[in-house]
């Protein structure tokens, strides 16, 4: 039996409550041997980052909360020359503040950039899973407890079987899973430059990566192809009755693409 965090990005409103709750729990509070006090500034053991996709006016924003993955095969443990880092039976990876010499080797080794240096105490620090609370009978770490939208859920992995469908672990065998991280989009607005009106119902065919996707422009003349894999290359064909077909080649989804206002010429 092991509890994990499931972070549903689609549910996250970007309120930063989790980040604040983590700081409230750990700043100026000494939870040794789990963790020494976190400094007031510079550390984000739970870090919410904002991701902006597209360009005005076709912009989508999502937020991702990130903390230590509590990796099954933790690079930080292997890198520590003092044996200060260990993985508990319940999977939480902890840095013993009494053993840490402040060499920063774990910080260099961590692939997820979630370890911070406490320059006053000269030690490395990170998310403890709020193990000091869990060991004392508290059911939820502060971040999941503070989330108003249940975007962060902390529960037995076996109880989350349904919710975990389509989720991916931050690190293999670790305790952090994400779902609904949006892919890239291609969007645009189709219009008639003579009538100065948007074209509703224009057919947009996107081909690439072995797929052909179809969309129609909505009542604003807009079309969207969402959740495309990053790094793809596509061809887009736009057709509407009474207009010449327009084609865009080599649209790359290294990031989301706003094709902006697209005029169609009358036949
Ligand atoms: S995410 Fe980084 S700090 Fe956390 S267990 Fe994995 S390697 Fe260690
Ligand atoms: S489990 Fe605790 S230490 Fe880890 S991110 Fe959440 S609040 Fe912070
Ligand atoms: S508390 Fe929940 S909704 Fe707010 S930023 Fe964190 S994960 Fe998102």
In short:
The protein has 267 residues and is mostly beta strands. The chain has helices spanning 17-26, 75-79, 105-109, 131-134, 142-146; strands at 3-8, 47-55, 58-66, 85-87, 93-95, 116-118, 123-125, 152-156, 168-169, 176-179, 184-192, 197-198, 203-208, 211-216, 222-228, 233-239, 246-252, 257-263. It is 11% helix and 37% strand.
- In helices, the fraction of residues equals 10-25%
The N- to C-terminal Cα distance equals 66 Å
How large, in whole angstroms, is the Cα Rg? 24 Å
Small molecules bound in the structure, each named once? iron/sulfur cluster
CATH architecture of the largest domain: 2-Layer Sandwich
CATH class of the largest domain: Alpha Beta
Q: Number of DSSP helices?
A: 5
Quick one: biggest sheet?
4 strands, mixed
**Class derived from helix and strand content:** mainly beta
Chain-averaged pLDDT: 97
The total tally of domains equals: 2
Tell me the strand percentage band. Answer: 35-45%
Element order: H for helix, E for strand:
EHEEHEEHEEHHEEEEEEEEEEE
Question: What does this entry look like structurally?
Answer:
- The chain is mainly beta and 267 residues long.
- The protein has two domains: 177 residues, Alpha-Beta Plaits, CATH 3.30.70.20; 80 residues, Immunoglobulins (Immunoglobulin-like), CATH 2.60.40.10.
- 11% of the residues lie in helices and 37% in strands.
- The protein contains five helices and 18 strands.
- A four-stranded mixed β-sheet has the order 8-1-10-9. Strands 11, 12, 15 and 18 form a four-stranded mixed β-sheet that branches. Strands 14-13-16-17 form a four-stranded antiparallel β-sheet, with no helix packed on it.
- The radius of gyration is 24 Å and the shape is elongated.
- The protein starts with a strand and ends with a strand.
- The model has no long low-confidence stretch (mean pLDDT 97).
- Bound molecules: iron/sulfur cluster (3 copies).
- The site of one iron/sulfur cluster has 13 residues, from α1 and α5.
